[in-house]
Amino acid sequence: MKRVIITVVGKDAVGIIARVCTYLAENQINILDISQTIVGGYFNMMMVTDPSKSPRETGVIADELDEMGRSMGLSIRVMGEDIFNAMHRI
């Protein structure tokens, strides 16, 4: 299974989790782990997901979530677990 990391960052607002999770459910993307915090009015969420049953390619998912994020004033990034790990290696 190729896991995909999704991060969501921006000013907190009602419905962020609902919109992102609805998109994932509609596209058969399973959330394996999720962490969400709000600090000083800023929202931060990180999810480890399994898109293996999704009919969409990861690039399409990334583009659609990026567009959703921009429409909500958020940054939503999608990357493979291997790339995420390489970027955060000490």
**Low-confidence stretches at least 5 residues in length (pLDDT < 50)?**
none
CATH class: Alpha Beta
- Find the count of extended strands (DSSP E, 2+ residues): 4
Integer average pLDDT: 92
Helix content: 25-40%
**Spatial strand arrangement across the major sheet:** 2-3-1-4
Radius of gyration of CA atoms, rounded to a whole number: 13 Å
- CATH superfamily label: ACT domain
Number of domains: 1
How would you characterize the largest beta sheet?
4 strands, antiparallel
What proportion strand?
35-45%
Distance between the termini: 25 Å
Order of helices and strands: EHEEHEH
| Large-scale geometry | globular
How many DSSP H or I helices?
3
CATH fold annotation: Alpha-Beta Plaits
Outline:
The protein is 37% helix and 38% strand.
How would you describe this structure in keywords?
four-stranded antiparallel sheet; 37% helix; 90 residues; 4 strands; 3 helices; 38% strand; alpha+beta; Alpha-Beta Plaits
Structure description:
It is a single chain. This protein is an alpha+beta fold and 90 residues long. The chain has one domain: Alpha-Beta Plaits, CATH 3.30.70. 37% of the residues lie in helices and 38% in strands. The longest helix has 15 residues. It is globular. The two termini are 25 Å apart. The mean pLDDT is 92.
